[in-house]
Request: fold
Amino acid sequence: PGGRFTISSDDGAYAVQIGLAFHEDVGGFMGMSPRAGETKGLFPGLTENARRLRIPISFRYKNWIANITPDFGSGSADGSVTLYEANLNYAGIHNTVLTAGYFQPRVTEEDSESSNEFEMMERPAITDIVRNIAAGDARFSIGGLHYAKRWWIAGYLTGQTYGNRSSSTNPISDSQTGATFRVAGRPYVSRDIDVHVGLSAISAFKVNEGAQGRVYSPSEAPEVNLTTTKLLSATVGDAGTVWSAGPELGFRWKRLVLKGEYYHIGVQRKGGADTGNMPATNFEGYYGAANYTLFGKGRAYNIKEGAFSAPGVEHPFDPVHGYWGALELSARYSVADLNSNLGTASAVRGGQQTVWSAGLNWYPNRHFRFMLDFNHFIVTRNSELYNLMGRDGNSVAGRLQAAF
Amino acid sequence: PGGRFTISSDDGAYAVQIGLAFHEDVGGFMGMSPRAGETKGLFPGLTENARRLRIPISFRYKNWIANITPDFGSGSADGSVTLYEANLNYAGIHNTVLTAGYFQPRVTEEDSESSNEFEMMERPAITDIVRNIAAGDARFSIGGLHYAKRWWIAGYLTGQTYGNRSSSTNPISDSQTGATFRVAGRPYVSRDIDVHVGLSAISAFKVNEGAQGRVYSPSEAPEVNLTTTKLLSATVGDAGTVWSAGPELGFRWKRLVLKGEYYHIGVQRKGGADTGNMPATNFEGYYGAANYTLFGKGRAYNIKEGAFSAPGVEHPFDPVHGYWGALELSARYSVADLNSNLGTASAVRGGQQTVWSAGLNWYPNRHFRFMLDFNHFIVTRNSELYNLMGRDGNSVAGRLQAAF
Amino acid sequence: PGGRFTISSDDGAYAVQIGLAFHEDVGGFMGMSPRAGETKGLFPGLTENARRLRIPISFRYKNWIANITPDFGSGSADGSVTLYEANLNYAGIHNTVLTAGYFQPRVTEEDSESSNEFEMMERPAITDIVRNIAAGDARFSIGGLHYAKRWWIAGYLTGQTYGNRSSSTNPISDSQTGATFRVAGRPYVSRDIDVHVGLSAISAFKVNEGAQGRVYSPSEAPEVNLTTTKLLSATVGDAGTVWSAGPELGFRWKRLVLKGEYYHIGVQRKGGADTGNMPATNFEGYYGAANYTLFGKGRAYNIKEGAFSAPGVEHPFDPVHGYWGALELSARYSVADLNSNLGTASAVRGGQQTVWSAGLNWYPNRHFRFMLDFNHFIVTRNSELYNLMGRDGNSVAGRLQAAF
Reply:
């Protein structure tokens, strides 16, 4: 399906598939001079990154499926080798998939889209922060999803991420447990219109315990993965339960798609024996995005994901015959606020990041895509040496993509 | 064969295969409070581990075969990426396979079984300690095996394990050389009965030389791979030749399989210029195991491995038609003693570990398996900070398995 | 092609391929005693190395191709896991391939040969040093090549190598940019004779900026990859542009192939504010090689590579019928000089390495190869602790190879 190579046995009992999700980024930062007293940070003017280099391999015997996906990208520093997923699935129940193993349980509309089909190169910062609480790539999960033509629901119990305990510098003496939940629906559907509403929730019942105890420390790059310097970065020690929830809204009119989501994050804090429990830490974020397909078949609703999918290519690139594939424009405004209780004894100052972005995606055919994104970002100060005074800057980045 | 996907050329000269060995564990430890003065160690109450995530790929041209098997599990800390094997084979001689390259040369009955077919989730501690002397996963090996209906024999010269010299903190100035030997036979065979006898021997002629000289340092987890804390842990400095040998016994009566093995380990020790040679260090260990297949086809003898294989599934899981796959019960008693010459100047106190375990394995079909193991372990003190006084405890763990 | 497994769709629009480049080395060093005051270095008497364990996977849709090649060898210390290439290609123009992504852009005749077809186990030191300036494995590249029956040309803009920015100890604040160029031709061709001339050039416009600023630091093992100790090793601080260029010459007469190349390397140096620019650093190197095919089909010219390829096997190994595959002999003399401006304030003393080598390659069939190489090397002193006085020594090494 979708061009993924499949070999099946004649009786249909067996099938093996091999695919590819290839995302390589090139670009850099402009206007990133640090203010007085700040260190520079790592903001190269021109660099590259192996963003995703996944080779999904799938083995099926009747209704039982084993998936394994090595990833040679996975990072923001020219690539590293890890695992994207490795899970067992039972698909014997109609429109339902039960899953156990390393998996990406989907929360939020943005995270429910395949990364092959994103409007912009990266998710909004708040989406990444929310999903990393107890979901994200290669999270050990047990749960299931069910979809129908008008609604979608999923829930998973989750543990740690692949490789989590491997650290020699931060030995993990107790592991994370958490859960995710998402429900989405389409209250109105017509040929020209799709209305999407949804609710996502996620919680780490307890974050894992390392050398510094239980610490929740969200951090984010400015919606472009060409630096390891995270201007937005908070550390919440003595963390108890971490939770987040928020609404999803989406609207399609012909070739125009509008989307927005808001999430609140709460972190319960246990103090020391002397201080008693501390006030909860509260973070939040939101984004609004608009997308328009200039030529090609516009974005559509994917009921298996409960999310919007990429434009279709009606005729592959063939300039001799006047075929140019598909082209779309995107714009987004995104805010993530990791400041909490400022001015009190329990203040956490992780900074607030605002990103304005605009992008262009060209699809010469259904398997290849070229993206170009411009971001302008403004980040208020936190306590990192490279962000003592607040930083702002710009990035221009392109992506080479192949998906089979 | 066995459901491994194979593509062959029409003339049979070429074939390529791709398979999967997928083992993921979930579980934790109970009753692991340290005694006074001990550190806690890493014994999470609930955690997970990517135990084996192997993708065997095989290329054949006539009688020559190249195997390569990436492994994304391989560890006890949520997975890491490495190589399970990469070797060349010549299969042009009847019932014989000559091998060179990174390989797992088989010693002991337990190690000769495929990990897809183990009775319990992990090998007995003594089996792991013995095989790691000069065999184990991805060991550079040159040798061969021959099998017949009633006997099995193999021998390999071995070097280091894949990745051995990569350490930046312990540079290797000289490499290990060693050898393995195993012979096994079936003195009595009938429809209801299999009698297995065997002898395994292994030696590291010289262990590799790192920053601390030549050191032999066996260590083991308590037969559950959900912790990196090795309660059983010995260090033998100035090590010369390390050898081990011992008998294998196995007996099948209908659906019941009984097994037991004993191994002695000897480590020759070179002292400093002033002390002269020191007395040899001696370790030992043994186990006894019982297994019964409740439903499904019982365990059988695999002449290619010289070892017992997993139960067969006569009808895949299909509750509507009353088919439940196969189910088996296992129990094991295992001892590994890494104490030697206690009370003398050449004492090595690595601790003695006893493990009582019981397990249940369910096979819904021939490719998937679910395991549940309970272990109770008692480990006497050694000199590790987390085991100054002796430790005991329990573990409960489950495994998700797929094998293609 | 060449036995690579390919699955295509019936209409030819789709194809997927999977292959293997398997190179494992065994051998060691002799006569490597350090001189007075030097440390030993890591020169094992007998060790092994996973030199290349690549699994090339290729996805094609019409004229667009995505390649990805995991590598489980890649090193000199028993293997490590990385990426050899991951790139997108457009092949819609006759005899032309346009490429973007992680790639090995070819410079020099020696580097243009497939590693499956090398005369000796390793490239000459100077070839490795030159290609590593701005090419080598998994270099981010954008460019193209064109070949015809009598000539070959290629040029690429290049960035960093896969994984370059991942270092936690040497954070990269600015990335490398560079370029490569190669043109080659065959002024005279007949059945018995091939004359090859070529020119290769390469430049790092700026090397990347790490914690020590912009540093160019070439280093090489003695043309055998069984040690991580680089006797030849130079460090050029405050490096500006690095460039190299030189001629390629090759000549085939029947089964005899003669080759030689020379390269000069120039490093522009920026001084501190007080010192001003420093004189340029200059390195150089060359090699001459002879190869004769004793039996089998001799080496031939590969117009797609602009380089000589390996002998052909007319009849696979089958001693019963008197077929022994192919056998060739190689010899090489190679010099790499990393000393510059000795006796002046801007001296760089990286040492000069001379290697005499001789080798034997046996091909039982077209997919398997066994190599045996002897090297004698002489390295003059530099400032490394293991080479304070100059070192010489010998190595004997064999290689197991499979290529599909």
In short: Helices of chain B lie at 109-112, 125-134.
